[in-house]
Each structure stands twice: as structure tokens, then as C-alpha cells.
């Protein structure tokens, strides 16, 4: 058997698969061009968590802690939420929790990467197994998943700061209740 023909055939198969994957990624990124315009939207995401017990807090600790949501993926969509992330624009925050994008005028919403998952995967990812947690029914998760982190009617260049509040034992999950012991 002539190995150079086998090698050539395998190489072509590998290249065509790589090109198919790349074209799928480009299809999702091309959505940026659909909405590209003159209005620069700059959004800084940060998370805020309260002081969660232990030693008596200082005055500063009692205010809680705010930190940038660095290197986080979000999806942006125009008007109504589409069924697929291929119809959304993927954006990633920098070290300071910020991203910027040039858009046309219009109503835009932003969801976290997890909220782009199908409902069953979202619920599975957001439920913590343990004896100290109780959960609302799946409709709570569906409402949470479909609620954007941020919505804006964009008509001029805008800078926004979005703060995602978290709780001590449940994070940002409004469908989960902690029933265990609290720290002193």
C-alpha cells in the first residue's frame, strides 16, 4: 500500500473537519457585523457579595465586597431573545470586568454564559447537591435563565456598570435556599 496516499487522504479529512469547526465559529461571530454601528456600548460587570460571618466585621467588611467579573463570557442579543447562541454575539470581559462593542441603535440585552445553556443543562449546573439546600420548581429556573443581566435602549455611546448581587451560601441563584447552619 502506498502510505503517501493514505497520509494525503487523512490530511484532507483533518483539514476539512477543522474548516467546518472554524466556519461554525465564524457564523456565530458574524452576528457582530449584523448589529455593528456607531454607538459604542461599554459595560463593566462586577459581583457584590455580603460579609458572610465569622469574626465581627470591620465597618468596611460590613459593606460587603465588590470585585470585577474578569474574563467572563456573556451573550448579547437584539430585541427578542433568540433560541440559539449562534444568533447572539459572544463578548468576553477583560481583567477589569469590562467589554466594549460598537452597535446600531436599538434595544439590546445581555445574558451570562450559563443562561445560554438549554434549561435542563442550566438547572443541572446551578443545583448544588447537599442536605442544606432546597430548590424552587423548574419554572423559577426558567424565569431566572430568561431574565437578562442587563437591557438597554441604545441611542448614543454609553458606559454602564452592572452589579450582580450574590448571597453567602447560594451565590447568584434565586431558586435555591440555604437551610443549614450559619457561621457565628
Structural features, described:
The protein has a domain at 32-116 and 147-170: Carboxypeptidase-like, regulatory domain (Immunoglobulin-like, Sandwich). It is built from five helices and ten strands, in the order ααβαβββββαβαβββ. It has helices at 3-29, 31-35, 59-62, 119-126, 138-146, and strands at 39-49, 65-68, 73-78, 89-92, 98-103, 106-112, 133-135, 150-154, 158-165, 176-178. Strands 1, 2, 5 and 9 form a four-stranded mixed beta sheet that branches. A four-stranded antiparallel beta sheet has the order 4-3-6-8. The longest helix is centred in the first third of the chain and has 27 residues, at 3-29. It is flat, with a radius of gyration of 22 Å. 10% of the residues are buried. Residues 10-33 have low confidence and may be disordered.
Describe the global form: flat
CATH topology call of the domain at 32-116 and 147-170: Immunoglobulin-like
- The share of residues in helices is 25-40%
SSE pattern: HHEHEEEEEHEHEEE
**CATH architecture heading of the domain at 32-116 and 147-170:** Sandwich
CATH C-level class of the domain at 32-116 and 147-170: Mainly Beta
Query: Kindly, what is the distance between the CA atoms of the first and last residues, rounded to a whole number of angstroms?
Result: 75 Å
Amino acid at each position: 500500500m502506498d502510505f503517501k496516499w493514505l497520509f494525503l487522504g487523512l490530511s484532507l479529512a483533518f483539514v476539512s473537519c477543522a474548516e467546518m469547526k472554524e466556519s461554525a465559529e465564524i457564523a456565530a461571530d458574524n452576528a457582530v457585523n449584523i448589529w455593528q454601528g456607531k454607538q459604542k456600548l461599554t459595560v463593566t460587570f462586577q459581583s457584590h457579595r455580603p460579609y458572610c460571618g465569622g469574626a465581627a466585621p470591620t465597618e468596611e467588611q460590613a459593606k460587603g465586597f465588590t470585585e470585577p467579573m474578569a474574563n467572563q463570557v456573556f451573550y448579547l442579543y437584539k430585541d427578542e431573545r433568540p433560541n440559539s447562541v449562534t444568533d447572539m454575539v459572544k463578548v468576553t470581559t477583560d481583567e477589569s470586568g469590562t467589554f466594549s462593542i460598537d452597535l446600531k441603535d436599538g434595544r439590546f440585552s445581555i445574558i451570562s454564559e450559563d443562561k445560554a445553556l438549554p434549561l435542563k443543562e442550566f438547572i443541572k449546573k446551578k443545583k448544588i447537591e447537599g442536605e442544606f439546600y432546597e430548590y424552587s420548581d423548574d419554572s423559577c429556573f426558567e424565569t431566572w435563565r430568561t431574565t437578562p443581566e442587563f437591557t438597554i435602549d441604545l441611542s448614543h455611546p454609553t458606559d454602564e456598570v452592572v452589579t450582580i448581587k450574590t448571597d453567602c451560601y447560594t451565590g447568584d441563584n434565586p431558586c435555591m435556599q440555604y437551610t443549614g447552619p450559619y457561621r457565628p
